Amino acid sequence: MSTSASHKRYVLILAGGSGQRFWPISRDTRPKQLLKLFGDKTLLELTIDRLQGFVPKENILILTNTQQEASVRAIVKDLPKENIVAEPEKRDTAPAIALAVGWVVARDPTATMLVLPADHLIQNHAEFQRVLTNASIAAENSGNLVTIGIKPTWPCPSYGYVERGRRASIGGMDDLPAWEVARFREKPNPDLAEHFISQGNFLWNAGMFIWTIPAIFSELSRHCPVLADFVSELRGTKDFAATVARQFAKLPKLSIDYALMEKATRVLNIEATFDWDDVGNWTSVGRYLESDGDGNQFNCAFSQQDAASNLVFTQTGQHVALIGVQDLIVVASKDGLLVADRARAETIKKLVDGLPAELR
Asked: What distance in Å separates the CA atoms of residue 358 and residue 297, rounded to the nearest whole number?
């Protein structure tokens, strides 16, 4: 990638969210992207690392919320302070992205902008950057909004889906094809997810978006003018923080999919050729831990007798021993201990709602 191209591209990393699925390690102030689940770096740090060489660090914006801002700033110390912005309150992804568009447009109204989640695990950085480069070229050469899709490995009912139409002809890309998006599909029931998979032209919606500033502003003006007005106000303001503080809470609480992507007519999709894991719960983490011949997965000193298919994750340094149990999740932090049926990993977030405030 040329230096001039990289300096014209900006990356928004969405780093908000709640800390429920990974209790007791996670908290409201320390959600998934701020946890060290895969070594000595948080998922947010790993997200920044895989952008090295793709854009300058001063072109990376991290958007978080006031509850998590201090934790984010403590972790991310090598970005300019003004590149970490906290939403005054949670208004979903459409207002968050509009805020970021305003931040970018004040710096370069002709730039290309990429939106990436902070809580995915992607290990093939070279292939990741190749896909992002092609997506950027597609956005720049076509004027379309571009999404990244993940090839489904099973009929998951917890993801949104992208239905692809015809192949698009875009100049400047390598052998990675782009496809017109026929429509976005909400999270389906299991039977409909099975149907999607059988069709062969459905991908998981990864929540990664690429567009030029003129293209996204045009689409916002057409489909969500209140957000376009907010962008215009941010572009002209002399006090960015004050304008955000004054106007952000007034914006409609909408997802970017509902507010814009499902309505826009010029959307392309590129299939990811890199590895991808959204690390949805503790069972996802288990795939990357050390394991024994009985299917036990662990990150600590571990012994077992007649125990199988258990997941053990600790922050305490203790030796954990299991006898005669199977299919458990055992997670220990300094102030909490979770023992759960592995099949009920998704219900941990419901448990958190009933915990004492100091443990949430």
From this structure: 29
Q: Which one, of 193, 214, 211, lies nearest residue 202 by Cα?
A: 193
pLDDT band at 4 (very low <50, low <70, confident <90, very high): low
List, in sequence order, the alpha helices (H) in 237-335: 240-247, 256, 282-286
The total of other beta-carbon atoms located within 10 Å of residue 35's CB is: 20
Query: Can you tell me the distance from the alpha carbon of 287 to that of 181, in angstroms, rounded to the nearest whole number?
Result: 32
pLDDT of res. 275: 97
Cα(93)–Cα(13) distance, integer angstroms:
11
CA 66, CA 73: separation in Å to the nearest integer? 11
Q: Which of 135, 161, 157 is nearest to 147 (CA)?
A: 135
**Among 17-26, 34-43, 44-53, 190-199, whose mean pLDDT is lowest?**
17-26
Task: Please determine, for residue 2, whether its predicted confidence score (pLDDT) is greater than 60.
Answer: no
pLDDT value of residue 7: 77
* Closest by Cα among 99, 125, 190 to 152: 190
What does the pLDDT look like over 298-307, one tens digit per residue? 999 999 999 9
Q: Taking residues 77-94, report their average pLDDT.
A: 94
Model's pTM, two decimal places?
A: 0.94
Q: CA quadruple 211, 179, 270, 191: dihedral positive or negative?
A: positive
Rounded to an integer, the average pLDDT of 207-228 is 97
Tell me how many degrees the CA angle 264-86-150 measures, rounded to the nearest 5: 40
Q: Which amino acid is at 325?
A: V
Round the CA-based radius of gyration of the chain to a whole number and report it. 21
CB atoms within 10 A of CB 242: 10
Q: Nearest Cα to 148, choosing from 9, 269, 295?
A: 269
* Confidence grade of residue 3 (pLDDT, cut at 50, 70, 90): low
Residues of the chain with CATH 3.90.550.10: 3-271
Q: Which segments of the chain does DSSP mark as H helices, in order?
A: 3-7, 43-49, 69-75, 93-105, 125-142, 190-199, 213-223, 225-236, 240-247, 256, 282-286, 348-353
C-alpha dihedral (316, 322, 327, 329), degrees to nearest 10: -10
Whether domain 3-271 has CATH 3.90.550.10: the reply is yes
